[in-house]
C-alpha cells in the first residue's frame, strides 16, 4: 500500500517511481530522463506537464474532471505537473469556470489531487495567477461558437464580473474584452495579501512547488509591457524600473511566504507586436527579450528557482509563426545570459528527439508540455522508447509496454 494515511486507499507501490530511468545515471543518460534537484527536491525527470486551463471548476473548486485529468499524468511518467492557472481572488479568474484558491473550502479538492500524485511518485505544483484585463470572459469553446468579432465578455447574469476587471491602466485587451479599471495602491496591496493567503492554502494542500503566472497578457505581464501599462506613477510609463516594480514586489513577498520549496515564474519573453522592442531614440515600444533578460536577473536576485519561458498573449494583433520549437530561442537567450538559473521551454514541442536536443544543447533545463501530452498522456513512456531509455511504467500498465 502506498501512502495510506494521505489517500486512504490502496495503490500498488511502484519501485522506482513511474517515469524514472531503470539504469544508473551517467554522462550517457538521456537528458530528458536525468533527475533534477531544485531546493533539495528531486524531480525524477525533466518532462513537466504545463499548466492547462480546463475551464471546468465549480466556483473555483477543483472537480473530478481535474482528478482524472491531472491523475492521468501522475500515473504516466512525467517528472512534474503544474496545475492550471488558479486565481487568488474571484475577480482574477479568466472565466467564471476557472480554478481558484481564495477560499479554504478550495483546499480539500486540491489536496485530494496532490495526494494522488504523491502516491504515484510525481511532484505536483500549482500556477497562481490573476487574469487582469483578460478576466471575465467566456471559455474558448463558447467564444468559438459566438463567432469572430463577437463579445467575449461574461456578463453578470452569466456569472461574470465585467465591472470589476482590473489592470495597470484602463486599456482593454481588445474591443471584445472588458474595459479594465486602473489599479490603485490599495488594489495592489489587496492583491499582494491575496497571493500570500493563497500560498498558505498551497502549503495546506501539500503542493511541491508554486509557479507565479507572469505571462500571456495577464495582470503581471500587463504591468511589464508599455503596450498595456501607460501609467504615469511609480508603477508605469517609459522607465523600465517602474514597470518592473509591482511584478518584483509581488514575487518578493511570495518568495518570503514560500521560503522552503521551489518557486517558478512564467514569463512571456516577447509581446510579438509589430516593430522593434526599442526605437532609435531608446524608447521602449513593447515587451521583449532585452527587458526579459533584465527581469530574469532581478528574479534571480529574489531567489526564484526556475523561469518558465513562454511568449505572447498581451497584444491582440500579435503575428506569431507557430512552428515546432518556435519559443525555444527565447529560453536559449535567457539561459545564455543567466546560466546559473534553471530555464524551462515551451511551444509546440511534440517529438522526443526534438525535446531531447533542446536539453542536450543547453538551450533549456526542462521542457513543459501541454498539447502533446493531452493528445498522448503516455508521452514520457513513448519518449523513453524512442530514445532507447528503460524507464519504470506503472504496474497496472506494464503489459502494454512489454
From TrEMBL:
InterPro entries: Aldolase_TIM (IPR013785), OxRdtase_FMN_N (IPR001155), YqjM-like (IPR044152). GO terms for molecular function: FMN binding; NADP binding; NADPH dehydrogenase activity. Its cofactor is FMN. SUPFAM superfamilies: FMN-linked oxidoreductases. Keywords: Flavoprotein, FMN, NADP, Oxidoreductase. It comes from the Eukaryota. Residues 32-387 form the NADH:flavin oxidoreductase/NADH oxidase N-terminal domain. This is NADH:flavin oxidoreductase/NADH oxidase N-terminal domain-containing protein.
